[in-house]
Design a protein that fits this description.
Layout: E1 15-16, H1 18-24, E2 33-36, E3 42-44, H2 81-88, E4 102-103, E5 108-111, E6 116-124, E7 132-135, E8 146-151, E9 159-167, E10 171-179, E11 183-185, E12 189-197
Length: 199
């Protein structure tokens, strides 16, 4: 068992304020240690350099600093590589750092990063009970989705209507009618809008 030893000698290093040391600007002896009493910083003399030109001694830290040596605050936290990657890959509010898939044309679509997709277009109604089949510019991932149609124009005193009756991921079917004194299948031009998921 190791025997404990008691040091019988004690030494006190010079302990002066920063202002007093800067004013005196002494040349410390080689190896002499002097502390600033109000800052806790210290300098070690080399026997030739005056205090004001002497660098403060910097504490030596280990190559790998353990978390126990670091205090976090509101602006500094420990994070994992996964958390850091998640934060760095977030979309900006203006989506300036996101590559969006879109097609801006008469028949087009817009895919949002979270999976939402808008599609729109125009089609001609068909004057029979089968109606028109309208194919999407790009397919939805799932059904159901929301799809509405609205007439572009109609003759004076004519009520133009339409309904969607079949919906798949790649197309929908719609019948179109117009009515004056009676009802008939119509062939007017219609706009359509569909909202669903692309993933």
């Amino acid at each position: 068992m190791a025997t404990e030893k008691t040091l019988k000698g004690r030494m006190q290093h010079p302990f002066l304020t920063e202002t007093a040391l800067r004013t005196a600007n002494p040349v410390l002896l080689a190896g002499e240690v002097v502390y600033e009493s109000d800052t806790g910083k210290r300098k070690v003399g080399d026997g030739k350099t005056a205090w004001n030109s002497l660098a403060y001694e910097v504490a030596q830290l280990p190559n790998n600093i353990p978390a126990s040596m670091i205090s976090g605050d509101a602006a500094h936290r420990f994070v994992s590589d996964t958390e850091k990657s998640t934060w760095n890959n977030k979309a900006a509010k203006d989506l300036s750092n996101v590559s969006l898939t879109k097609l801006f044309s008469e028949n087009g679509y817009y895919k949002a990063p979270d999976g939402l997709m808008f599609q729109w277009g125009i089609f001609n109604g068909v004057a029979n009970s089968t109606g028109a089949t309208v194919y999407f510019p790009t397919a939805f991932a799932y059904t159901p989705y929301s799809c509405v149609i609205t007439p572009k124009n109609g003759a004076d005193k004519t009520v133009v209507m339409g309904r969607v009756y079949t919906m798949t991921t790649s197309y929908f079917k719609a019948t179109t009618v117009w009515a004056t004194s009676g009802s008939n299948w119509g062939a007017e031009i219609y706009y359509w809008l569909a909202i669903g998921r692309w993933k």
